[in-house]
Amino acid sequence: MTGKPTSDREALRRLADALADDVLNTSDQEVLAEAAEEYGDTKQLAANMRALFERTCAAAGKAKLAAARAALNGDRRRAPSRRRLDPSAARRLLQQVLTAHPETAQKLTYAARRGEGLSDEDVFSMLDDLEELGVIPCDPQEPLS
Amino acid sequence: MKALTPAETLLKELGVTEAQDIDLEAIAWCLGARVKYRPLDGCEARIAGSGDQAIITVSSRCSHRRRRFSLAHELGHWKYHRGRLLVCRADEIGRAGSNYPEAERVANNYAAQLLMPGYLLAPRLLAHPKLNFQTVRSIAEAFDTSRTATAIRLVEAGHAPSLLICHGMDGRKWFTRSPGVPERWFPQDTLDPESFAFQVLHGQAPEDAVPRLVGADAWFDRSEAGKYEVREQTIRIGPDRILTMVLIRDDEMLDEWNTSYQTRRR
Predict the structure, then answer these.
(1) How far is B91 from chain A (nearest CA, A)?
(2) In chain A, which residue's Cα lies nearest the Cα of B59?
Protein backbone atom coordinates (compact mmCIF):
# COMPACT_ATOMS: atom_id res chain seq x y z
CA MET A 1 0.00 0.00 0.00
CA THR A 2 1.48 3.33 -1.01
CA GLY A 3 -1.34 5.37 0.51
CA LYS A 4 -1.95 7.07 -2.83
CA PRO A 5 -5.57 6.75 -3.98
CA THR A 6 -5.91 4.78 -7.21
CA SER A 7 -9.20 6.41 -8.21
CA ASP A 8 -11.77 8.95 -7.07
CA ARG A 9 -13.98 6.14 -5.80
CA GLU A 10 -11.12 4.73 -3.72
CA ALA A 11 -10.43 8.21 -2.33
CA LEU A 12 -14.05 8.59 -1.29
CA ARG A 13 -14.04 5.17 0.34
CA ARG A 14 -10.97 6.08 2.39
CA LEU A 15 -12.52 9.36 3.40
CA ALA A 16 -15.67 7.58 4.53
CA ASP A 17 -13.60 5.06 6.49
CA ALA A 18 -11.65 7.87 8.15
CA LEU A 19 -14.85 9.69 9.14
CA ALA A 20 -16.35 6.47 10.49
CA ASP A 21 -13.17 5.77 12.48
CA ASP A 22 -13.30 9.31 13.84
CA VAL A 23 -16.87 8.80 15.07
CA LEU A 24 -16.11 5.36 16.51
CA ASN A 25 -13.08 6.71 18.38
CA THR A 26 -15.10 9.52 19.94
CA SER A 27 -16.70 8.89 23.34
CA ASP A 28 -20.50 8.84 23.70
CA GLN A 29 -20.38 11.99 25.78
CA GLU A 30 -18.38 13.83 23.14
CA VAL A 31 -20.77 12.74 20.38
CA LEU A 32 -23.77 13.87 22.45
CA ALA A 33 -22.12 17.18 23.23
CA GLU A 34 -21.31 17.82 19.56
CA ALA A 35 -24.85 16.85 18.50
CA ALA A 36 -26.38 19.11 21.18
CA GLU A 37 -24.22 22.00 20.02
CA GLU A 38 -25.27 21.45 16.41
CA TYR A 39 -28.92 20.38 16.75
CA GLY A 40 -30.11 21.26 20.25
CA ASP A 41 -32.29 18.58 21.91
CA THR A 42 -30.54 15.24 21.27
CA LYS A 43 -33.57 13.18 22.33
CA GLN A 44 -35.68 14.96 19.76
CA LEU A 45 -32.92 14.44 17.22
CA ALA A 46 -32.88 10.70 18.00
CA ALA A 47 -36.67 10.54 17.68
CA ASN A 48 -36.56 12.36 14.35
CA MET A 49 -33.85 10.04 13.05
CA ARG A 50 -35.79 6.97 14.22
CA ALA A 51 -38.92 8.24 12.49
CA LEU A 52 -36.93 8.91 9.33
CA PHE A 53 -35.49 5.40 9.49
CA GLU A 54 -38.96 3.88 9.94
CA ARG A 55 -40.38 5.93 7.05
CA THR A 56 -37.53 4.83 4.82
CA CYS A 57 -38.03 1.17 5.74
CA ALA A 58 -41.78 1.48 5.16
CA ALA A 59 -41.22 3.08 1.76
CA ALA A 60 -38.82 0.29 0.78
CA GLY A 61 -41.34 -2.31 1.99
CA LYS A 62 -44.18 -0.68 0.05
CA ALA A 63 -42.03 -0.68 -3.08
CA LYS A 64 -41.28 -4.37 -2.59
CA LEU A 65 -44.99 -5.16 -2.17
CA ALA A 66 -45.92 -3.11 -5.25
CA ALA A 67 -43.25 -4.92 -7.28
CA ALA A 68 -44.66 -8.24 -6.08
CA ARG A 69 -48.17 -7.22 -7.15
CA ALA A 70 -46.89 -6.23 -10.60
CA ALA A 71 -44.96 -9.48 -10.93
CA LEU A 72 -47.88 -11.69 -9.98
CA ASN A 73 -50.23 -9.77 -12.29
CA GLY A 74 -47.85 -10.62 -15.09
CA ASP A 75 -47.55 -14.21 -13.93
CA ARG A 76 -51.32 -14.71 -14.18
CA ARG A 77 -51.18 -14.29 -17.92
CA ARG A 78 -49.51 -17.67 -18.27
CA ALA A 79 -51.74 -20.48 -19.49
CA PRO A 80 -52.37 -23.07 -16.79
CA SER A 81 -50.97 -26.52 -17.40
CA ARG A 82 -53.13 -29.61 -17.22
CA ARG A 83 -52.03 -33.18 -16.82
CA ARG A 84 -53.60 -35.60 -19.24
CA LEU A 85 -53.87 -38.87 -17.36
CA ASP A 86 -56.79 -41.07 -16.62
CA PRO A 87 -58.00 -40.60 -13.02
CA SER A 88 -56.79 -43.94 -11.68
CA ALA A 89 -53.32 -43.39 -13.17
CA ALA A 90 -53.30 -39.92 -11.62
CA ARG A 91 -54.12 -41.33 -8.20
CA ARG A 92 -51.39 -43.96 -8.57
CA LEU A 93 -48.91 -41.25 -9.48
CA LEU A 94 -49.92 -39.16 -6.47
CA GLN A 95 -49.44 -42.19 -4.23
CA GLN A 96 -45.99 -42.73 -5.72
CA VAL A 97 -45.07 -39.11 -5.07
CA LEU A 98 -46.26 -39.27 -1.49
CA THR A 99 -44.38 -42.53 -0.93
CA ALA A 100 -41.23 -41.06 -2.47
CA HIS A 101 -41.54 -37.91 -0.34
CA PRO A 102 -42.84 -39.04 3.04
CA GLU A 103 -41.84 -35.73 4.65
CA THR A 104 -43.98 -33.87 2.11
CA ALA A 105 -47.03 -35.95 2.96
CA GLN A 106 -46.32 -35.99 6.70
CA LYS A 107 -49.14 -33.63 7.56
CA LEU A 108 -51.71 -34.81 5.09
CA THR A 109 -54.80 -36.05 6.81
CA TYR A 110 -55.07 -39.84 6.84
CA ALA A 111 -57.91 -39.81 4.33
CA ALA A 112 -56.04 -37.46 2.01
CA ARG A 113 -52.91 -39.62 2.25
CA ARG A 114 -54.94 -42.50 0.88
CA GLY A 115 -56.43 -40.25 -1.76
CA GLU A 116 -59.86 -40.44 -0.17
CA GLY A 117 -61.95 -37.31 -0.04
CA LEU A 118 -60.02 -35.91 -2.99
CA SER A 119 -61.93 -35.66 -6.23
CA ASP A 120 -60.26 -36.44 -9.54
CA GLU A 121 -59.97 -32.70 -10.11
CA ASP A 122 -58.25 -32.32 -6.72
CA VAL A 123 -55.76 -35.03 -7.65
CA PHE A 124 -55.06 -33.52 -11.08
CA SER A 125 -54.54 -30.04 -9.70
CA MET A 126 -52.33 -31.38 -6.90
CA LEU A 127 -50.17 -33.12 -9.50
CA ASP A 128 -50.02 -29.88 -11.51
CA ASP A 129 -48.78 -28.06 -8.43
CA LEU A 130 -46.17 -30.72 -7.67
CA GLU A 131 -45.03 -30.62 -11.27
CA GLU A 132 -44.70 -26.83 -11.19
CA LEU A 133 -42.64 -27.13 -8.04
CA GLY A 134 -40.36 -29.69 -9.68
CA VAL A 135 -41.33 -32.45 -7.26
CA ILE A 136 -42.47 -34.58 -10.18
CA PRO A 137 -41.02 -34.38 -13.71
CA CYS A 138 -42.91 -32.84 -16.62
CA ASP A 139 -42.15 -35.93 -18.69
CA PRO A 140 -44.32 -38.84 -17.48
CA GLN A 141 -41.62 -41.29 -18.67
CA GLU A 142 -39.03 -39.73 -16.42
CA PRO A 143 -38.67 -41.52 -13.06
CA LEU A 144 -39.59 -39.72 -9.85
CA SER A 145 -36.63 -38.22 -8.04
CA MET B 1 -44.78 -1.38 23.91
CA LYS B 2 -46.10 -4.80 22.96
CA ALA B 3 -43.69 -6.94 20.94
CA LEU B 4 -44.71 -7.58 17.36
CA THR B 5 -45.76 -11.08 16.35
CA PRO B 6 -44.05 -12.71 13.33
CA ALA B 7 -47.03 -11.82 11.12
CA GLU B 8 -46.98 -8.20 12.29
CA THR B 9 -43.21 -8.00 11.78
CA LEU B 10 -43.67 -9.18 8.20
CA LEU B 11 -46.32 -6.53 7.56
CA LYS B 12 -44.08 -3.81 9.00
CA GLU B 13 -41.21 -4.96 6.79
CA LEU B 14 -43.50 -4.67 3.78
CA GLY B 15 -44.50 -1.14 4.71
CA VAL B 16 -48.11 -1.96 5.58
CA THR B 17 -49.47 1.10 7.34
CA GLU B 18 -53.18 0.81 6.47
CA ALA B 19 -55.61 -2.09 6.57
CA GLN B 20 -56.21 -1.83 2.83
CA ASP B 21 -52.46 -2.33 2.20
CA ILE B 22 -52.74 -5.98 3.26
CA ASP B 23 -52.48 -7.50 -0.21
CA LEU B 24 -52.22 -11.18 0.67
CA GLU B 25 -51.38 -12.41 -2.81
CA ALA B 26 -48.51 -9.93 -3.09
CA ILE B 27 -47.34 -10.86 0.40
CA ALA B 28 -47.42 -14.53 -0.62
CA TRP B 29 -45.37 -13.67 -3.70
CA CYS B 30 -42.75 -11.95 -1.54
CA LEU B 31 -42.53 -15.16 0.48
CA GLY B 32 -42.07 -17.40 -2.56
CA ALA B 33 -45.64 -18.67 -2.63
CA ARG B 34 -47.94 -18.47 -5.66
CA VAL B 35 -51.69 -18.42 -5.14
CA LYS B 36 -54.30 -20.21 -7.22
CA TYR B 37 -58.06 -20.23 -6.91
CA ARG B 38 -59.90 -23.27 -8.19
CA PRO B 39 -62.78 -25.49 -7.15
CA LEU B 40 -61.62 -27.90 -4.46
CA ASP B 41 -63.74 -30.81 -3.35
CA GLY B 42 -61.82 -32.54 -0.56
CA CYS B 43 -60.61 -29.49 1.29
CA GLU B 44 -60.93 -25.72 1.52
CA ALA B 45 -57.29 -24.83 0.93
CA ARG B 46 -53.94 -26.53 0.59
CA ILE B 47 -50.26 -25.75 0.28
CA ALA B 48 -47.60 -27.70 -1.54
CA GLY B 49 -44.09 -26.58 -0.82
CA SER B 50 -40.68 -27.58 -2.05
CA GLY B 51 -37.53 -25.81 -0.99
CA ASP B 52 -38.28 -22.08 -0.86
CA GLN B 53 -41.19 -22.23 -3.33
CA ALA B 54 -44.80 -23.05 -2.63
CA ILE B 55 -48.14 -23.16 -4.38
CA ILE B 56 -51.19 -22.29 -2.32
CA THR B 57 -54.54 -23.34 -3.67
CA VAL B 58 -57.71 -21.86 -2.21
CA SER B 59 -61.22 -23.02 -2.99
CA SER B 60 -62.90 -20.63 -5.42
CA ARG B 61 -66.28 -21.74 -4.07
CA CYS B 62 -65.87 -19.75 -0.84
CA SER B 63 -66.76 -16.12 -0.21
CA HIS B 64 -64.13 -13.44 -0.80
CA ARG B 65 -63.47 -12.93 2.91
CA ARG B 66 -63.34 -16.64 3.59
CA ARG B 67 -60.81 -17.02 0.79
CA ARG B 68 -58.70 -14.27 2.36
CA PHE B 69 -58.65 -16.06 5.69
CA SER B 70 -57.83 -19.41 4.05
CA LEU B 71 -54.93 -17.81 2.17
CA ALA B 72 -53.60 -16.19 5.34
CA HIS B 73 -53.99 -19.56 7.11
CA GLU B 74 -51.88 -21.30 4.44
CA LEU B 75 -49.25 -18.56 4.78
CA GLY B 76 -49.18 -19.52 8.45
CA HIS B 77 -48.36 -23.07 7.40
CA TRP B 78 -45.67 -21.72 5.09
CA LYS B 79 -44.16 -19.85 8.02
CA TYR B 80 -44.30 -22.68 10.54
CA HIS B 81 -44.63 -25.97 8.62
CA ARG B 82 -42.53 -25.38 5.53
CA GLY B 83 -41.79 -28.15 3.04
CA ARG B 84 -44.96 -30.15 3.58
CA LEU B 85 -48.07 -30.83 1.62
CA LEU B 86 -50.96 -29.73 3.78
CA VAL B 87 -54.60 -30.16 3.04
CA CYS B 88 -56.85 -28.06 5.25
CA ARG B 89 -60.51 -28.82 5.78
CA ALA B 90 -63.17 -26.14 6.16
CA ASP B 91 -63.72 -26.98 9.83
CA GLU B 92 -60.03 -26.41 10.59
CA ILE B 93 -59.73 -22.95 9.06
CA GLY B 94 -60.88 -19.85 10.90
CA ARG B 95 -62.23 -21.45 14.04
CA ALA B 96 -61.37 -21.10 17.69
CA GLY B 97 -61.07 -23.50 20.59
CA SER B 98 -58.44 -26.12 21.31
CA ASN B 99 -59.87 -29.49 20.26
CA TYR B 100 -58.37 -29.59 16.80
CA PRO B 101 -54.81 -30.09 15.46
CA GLU B 102 -52.11 -27.84 16.87
CA ALA B 103 -50.71 -27.06 13.40
CA GLU B 104 -54.09 -25.72 12.32
CA ARG B 105 -54.39 -23.60 15.48
CA VAL B 106 -50.95 -22.11 14.85
CA ALA B 107 -51.94 -21.30 11.27
CA ASN B 108 -55.23 -19.75 12.38
CA ASN B 109 -53.49 -17.53 14.92
CA TYR B 110 -50.97 -16.41 12.30
CA ALA B 111 -53.81 -15.66 9.87
CA ALA B 112 -55.65 -13.56 12.45
CA GLN B 113 -52.50 -11.52 13.14
CA LEU B 114 -51.76 -11.10 9.44
CA LEU B 115 -55.26 -9.93 8.56
CA MET B 116 -55.83 -7.83 11.67
CA PRO B 117 -52.41 -6.81 13.02
CA GLY B 118 -52.47 -5.39 16.50
CA TYR B 119 -50.70 -2.17 15.50
CA LEU B 120 -53.51 -1.34 13.06
CA LEU B 121 -56.33 -2.83 15.11
CA ALA B 122 -55.65 -1.03 18.39
CA PRO B 123 -56.11 2.53 17.03
CA ARG B 124 -59.39 1.53 15.36
CA LEU B 125 -60.70 -0.04 18.54
CA LEU B 126 -60.31 3.30 20.33
CA ALA B 127 -63.38 4.39 18.38
CA HIS B 128 -65.25 1.25 19.47
CA PRO B 129 -64.86 0.94 23.24
CA LYS B 130 -67.80 -1.50 23.50
CA LEU B 131 -67.51 -5.06 22.28
CA ASN B 132 -70.57 -6.20 20.36
CA PHE B 133 -71.39 -7.36 16.85
CA GLN B 134 -71.76 -3.76 15.65
CA THR B 135 -68.09 -3.27 16.53
CA VAL B 136 -67.26 -6.59 14.87
CA ARG B 137 -69.05 -5.53 11.69
CA SER B 138 -67.24 -2.20 11.56
CA ILE B 139 -63.81 -3.78 12.08
CA ALA B 140 -64.61 -6.54 9.58
CA GLU B 141 -65.43 -3.89 6.96
CA ALA B 142 -62.19 -2.06 7.61
CA PHE B 143 -59.99 -5.17 7.42
CA ASP B 144 -62.00 -7.08 4.78
CA THR B 145 -62.44 -10.04 7.12
CA SER B 146 -65.38 -12.25 8.02
CA ARG B 147 -67.50 -11.53 11.07
CA THR B 148 -66.45 -14.85 12.63
CA ALA B 149 -62.72 -14.25 12.18
CA THR B 150 -63.08 -10.69 13.42
CA ALA B 151 -65.12 -11.69 16.46
CA ILE B 152 -62.55 -14.34 17.42
CA ARG B 153 -59.75 -11.80 17.04
CA LEU B 154 -61.48 -9.17 19.20
CA VAL B 155 -62.46 -11.62 21.93
CA GLU B 156 -59.01 -13.24 22.07
CA ALA B 157 -57.34 -9.82 22.02
CA GLY B 158 -59.17 -9.08 25.27
CA HIS B 159 -61.13 -6.09 24.03
CA ALA B 160 -63.68 -6.87 26.78
CA PRO B 161 -64.17 -9.84 29.15
CA SER B 162 -66.21 -12.19 27.01
CA LEU B 163 -66.74 -15.59 25.47
CA LEU B 164 -67.52 -16.36 21.85
CA ILE B 165 -69.47 -19.54 21.26
CA CYS B 166 -70.45 -21.22 18.02
CA HIS B 167 -73.46 -23.55 18.04
CA GLY B 168 -74.97 -25.83 15.44
CA MET B 169 -78.21 -27.77 15.63
CA ASP B 170 -76.37 -30.61 17.39
CA GLY B 171 -74.74 -28.49 20.06
CA ARG B 172 -71.65 -26.41 20.70
CA LYS B 173 -69.07 -26.50 17.90
CA TRP B 174 -66.31 -24.46 19.49
CA PHE B 175 -65.78 -21.57 21.83
CA THR B 176 -63.08 -19.20 22.93
CA ARG B 177 -62.77 -16.76 25.80
CA SER B 178 -60.86 -13.54 26.33
CA PRO B 179 -57.68 -13.69 28.44
CA GLY B 180 -59.24 -12.19 31.57
CA VAL B 181 -62.09 -14.70 31.85
CA PRO B 182 -61.41 -17.52 34.36
CA GLU B 183 -61.53 -21.07 32.99
CA ARG B 184 -64.32 -22.04 35.36
CA TRP B 185 -66.70 -20.20 33.02
CA PHE B 186 -67.13 -23.05 30.59
CA PRO B 187 -70.20 -22.79 28.35
CA GLN B 188 -72.73 -25.59 28.35
CA ASP B 189 -72.63 -28.14 25.52
CA THR B 190 -76.18 -27.46 24.45
CA LEU B 191 -78.12 -24.22 24.32
CA ASP B 192 -80.35 -23.44 27.28
CA PRO B 193 -83.92 -22.58 26.21
CA GLU B 194 -83.64 -19.57 28.54
CA SER B 195 -80.94 -18.06 26.34
CA PHE B 196 -81.93 -15.69 23.55
CA ALA B 197 -79.58 -17.63 21.30
CA PHE B 198 -81.85 -20.67 21.57
CA GLN B 199 -84.65 -18.83 19.79
CA VAL B 200 -82.31 -17.59 17.08
CA LEU B 201 -81.05 -21.11 16.36
CA HIS B 202 -84.19 -23.17 16.83
CA GLY B 203 -86.94 -20.62 16.35
CA GLN B 204 -87.48 -17.83 13.93
CA ALA B 205 -86.16 -15.10 16.17
CA PRO B 206 -84.10 -12.46 14.36
CA GLU B 207 -80.45 -11.80 15.18
CA ASP B 208 -79.98 -9.71 18.31
CA ALA B 209 -79.56 -6.04 17.42
CA VAL B 210 -77.78 -5.33 20.70
CA PRO B 211 -76.47 -7.44 23.61
CA ARG B 212 -79.29 -8.44 25.96
CA LEU B 213 -79.26 -9.12 29.67
CA VAL B 214 -79.75 -12.75 30.70
CA GLY B 215 -79.05 -14.87 33.76
CA ALA B 216 -75.53 -16.33 33.65
CA ASP B 217 -77.02 -19.75 34.44
CA ALA B 218 -78.47 -19.78 30.92
CA TRP B 219 -74.88 -20.19 29.76
CA PHE B 220 -72.92 -21.79 32.56
CA ASP B 221 -73.80 -24.96 34.44
CA ARG B 222 -72.41 -23.84 37.82
CA SER B 223 -74.25 -23.12 41.01
CA GLU B 224 -72.62 -19.70 41.41
CA ALA B 225 -73.89 -18.73 37.95
CA GLY B 226 -77.33 -18.14 39.48
CA LYS B 227 -75.96 -15.05 41.22
CA TYR B 228 -74.89 -13.24 38.08
CA GLU B 229 -76.18 -11.74 34.89
CA VAL B 230 -74.35 -11.51 31.57
CA ARG B 231 -75.18 -9.93 28.24
CA GLU B 232 -75.51 -12.03 25.11
CA GLN B 233 -75.78 -11.19 21.45
CA THR B 234 -76.25 -13.72 18.66
CA ILE B 235 -75.84 -13.60 14.90
CA ARG B 236 -76.38 -16.26 12.24
CA ILE B 237 -73.25 -17.36 10.40
CA GLY B 238 -74.79 -20.18 8.37
CA PRO B 239 -78.10 -21.88 7.72
CA ASP B 240 -77.85 -23.93 10.93
CA ARG B 241 -75.08 -22.15 12.77
CA ILE B 242 -75.00 -19.22 15.15
CA LEU B 243 -72.31 -17.21 16.87
CA THR B 244 -72.96 -15.80 20.33
CA MET B 245 -70.97 -13.27 22.25
CA VAL B 246 -71.39 -13.55 26.02
CA LEU B 247 -70.19 -10.39 27.75
CA ILE B 248 -69.20 -10.42 31.40
CA ARG B 249 -69.56 -7.17 33.30
CA ASP B 250 -69.60 -8.41 36.91
CA ASP B 251 -66.12 -8.13 38.43
CA GLU B 252 -66.85 -11.03 40.79
CA MET B 253 -67.19 -13.35 37.83
CA LEU B 254 -63.70 -12.33 36.75
CA ASP B 255 -62.10 -13.20 40.08
CA GLU B 256 -59.86 -16.24 39.97
CA TRP B 257 -60.74 -18.98 42.45
CA ASN B 258 -58.95 -22.20 43.30
CA THR B 259 -60.44 -25.53 42.33
CA SER B 260 -62.48 -25.82 45.53
CA TYR B 261 -63.86 -22.32 44.89
CA GLN B 262 -63.40 -21.48 48.54
CA THR B 263 -60.10 -19.62 48.48
CA ARG B 264 -59.74 -16.58 46.36
CA ARG B 265 -56.54 -16.26 44.33
CA ARG B 266 -55.87 -12.73 43.13
Answers:
(1) 13
(2) A122
